[in-house]
C-alpha cells in the first residue's frame, strides 16, 4: 500500500493449543488478561494468539519471542500514553504495531513509517460473528452509511455493515483511542470510498486523508488495515503464518 508501508500477518490458533508452552512466552500483563477470561476455549485462543504474535515478531526482528516488549506512543488527540498507538519498546527505530483477534484467528501489522491499525472479524454466511446490530449502527455509523446499508438487498446488509465496522475499527486503532474517537464521525461506506471498492481513503476526525484497505481473506473473515498517508493500492499485502 503506497502511503502505508507495513507488513501484515494472518495467523490461526492450533486445534490443540498448548497453553503451558505458549503461556511461557507471555508477559505479566498478558498472563493477567488471560486469567480474567472465564471461557476456557476463549482463554486458549487468546494465549495461542499472543504466543503466535510473539513468535512472528521475533522471527521478523531476530529477537527471542519472550523478550519482546511493547508500550504505547502518546495519543495524538490528548497526549495520554494509556490509549495511544501501540509501539515496540527497546528498538533503535520506532516500530508501530496493531493486533486484532476474532475466535482462533489473529491479525498482526507492523509499520516503521507511522501508526497502523488492523481489525479482523469472523463472518459465517450472512450472519457475522458478533453481528452488527441496530444499536451499533446507530451509535457508530453515520446517517449516510446507515442509509446506504438499508438500501442494499437484505442478504447483503450484515456483510456490508461488518465491512464498515472493520474499516472503522482499523482507523480507530490508528488514532489510538478506539471507539472513544467517535466511530460515527469516520465515514468508510460513503463519500470518499466508492461502494464495493477494497481500498480508499477516509477523513478521520481532526482532518487529513488516510488510506484504508480491506484485506482479501475469503468469505470466512472480514478484515481491514489503515494508517496515515495520501494514497492506497488495492493489492494483497497479507502473509499467512
Kindly describe this structure.
- This protein has 241 residues and is of the alpha+beta class.
- It contains 6 helices and 11 strands.
- The protein has helices at residues 19-23, 28-36, 40-61, 134-140, 143-150, 154-175, and strands at residues 6-12, 70-72, 86-88, 95-102, 105-111, 117-124, 127-128, 199-202, 210-215, 221-226, 238-240.
- The protein has a 6-stranded mixed sheet with strand order 2-3-4-5-1-11, with helices on one face.
- Strand 3 and strand 4 (95-102) form a beta hairpin.
Which word captures the global form? globular
Computed structural class? alpha+beta
Element order: H for helix, E for strand? EHHHEEEEEEHHHEEEE
**Fraction of helical residues:** 25-40%
Rg measurement, Å: 18 Å
**What number is the mean pLDDT?**
80
Q: What is the number of beta strands?
A: 11
In short:
The protein is an alpha+beta fold and 241 residues long.
Give the helix/strand layout.
Elements: E1 6-12, H1 19-23, H2 28-36, H3 40-61, E2 70-72, E3 86-88, E4 95-102, E5 105-111, E6 117-124, E7 127-128, H4 134-140, H5 143-150, H6 154-175, E8 199-202, E9 210-215, E10 221-226, E11 238-240
List its salient traits.
single chain, 241 residues, alpha+beta, 6-stranded mixed sheet, 5-stranded antiparallel sheet, 6 helices, 11 strands, globular, disordered C terminus
